[in-house]
Specification:
Blueprint (H helix, E strand, L loop, with lengths): L2 H6 L5 E6 L1 H13 L3 E6 L13 H13 L10
Length: 78
Amino acid sequence: DLIPGVIADPRVQAISLTGSERAGAAVAEIAGRNLKKVVLELGGSDPFILLSTDDMDATVEAALAARLENSGQACNAA
């Protein structure tokens, strides 16, 4: 497992992770032991709720694009 060594490396000053809570807990533990700054964006995505629409095809296309943009790895993903 390379990640603990990368985080511990003195050239690494901070860690940022977008991922699962399990991955975040592991990274936070290693970062804490090595006194590194850390930013974690964890968990799944929020529900995408559609209350009404006049154009379901366009709405579905926009929803898919928004949800999959940047592989969903952004805090503002749909």
